[in-house]
Amino acid sequence: MKLSVIIPIYNERDTVELLLKRVEAVPYEKEILLVDDASTDGTREILERLARDHRDQVRLLFHAQNRGKGATIRTAIEHVTGDIVIIQDADLEYDPQDYPKLLEPILDGHADVVFGNRFHGGPHRVLYFWHFQGNRLLTTFCNMLTNLNLSDMEVGYKVFRVEVLQRLRLRSNRFGIEPELTVKVAKLGCRIYEVPIAYHGRTYAEGKKIGWKDGVAALYYIPRFRLFD
Predict the structure, then answer these.
(1) CA distance 157 to 178
(2) pLDDT for 142-167, tens place per residue?
């Protein structure tokens, strides 16, 4: 089994090197696809050095203009060569030590797709009340339209058998990628599992990027991808 780790990156100079070390420490055969989304804070130079130092595992891809998380994931999918794909944010909110738990349902033959769950069972940082309520609203709305019973649709940790991911015709550029992935694997009839994960959330002062406008956009994307795409 070969694991492909997709890491979307935008202005993460303070975290990306430590994150790469943590991903590399996970004991699986793997490739690491770093996709820089036109960072402007010096991240690109760090990534170029890391790619030179880790040529055996790391592939570095660049966007000339900032296009969003969804666009970086779509770029990376074109270069994936592994059997299982995991999406890994570069900001240290998610811990690669959770990979074994996330991969287990797929490796055991039970699942095609696995979602992390930030709020049921794993340690998580206590942060924004309205973010949590917004996530519950979006997850419930998505469940109503897909007939799933997910607990955390917006979670960053999503894992796929590669043949499932390659069947999806993804369109989102920004954070609409989260509901798009969810809706489209539901429409395929995939076997979806959830597992509890640790979550070390950031504040906006620490670099958190998703905001209320992305939540409003998700309310549009969920029915669009369920009913019209």
Answers:
(1) 10
(2) 999 999 999 999 998 999 999 999 99
